[in-house]
Amino acid sequence: MTLATSSSPRREAFVEGIRDGMPIALGYFVVSFTLGIAARNAGLTPCEGFLASLFNNASAGEYAAFTIIAADAPYIELALMTLVANARYLLMSCVISQKFAPNTNILHRVLVGFDITDEIFGITIARKGPLNPYYNYGAMSVALPGWSIGTAFGVMAGNLLPESAVSALSVALFGMFIWVIIPPARDNRIIGALVAISFVASFTCTHLPIIHELSGGTRTIILTVVIAALGAILHPINENAPGKENIHEP
Question: The domain containing residue 199 runs over which residues?
Answer without folding.
Answer: 188-250
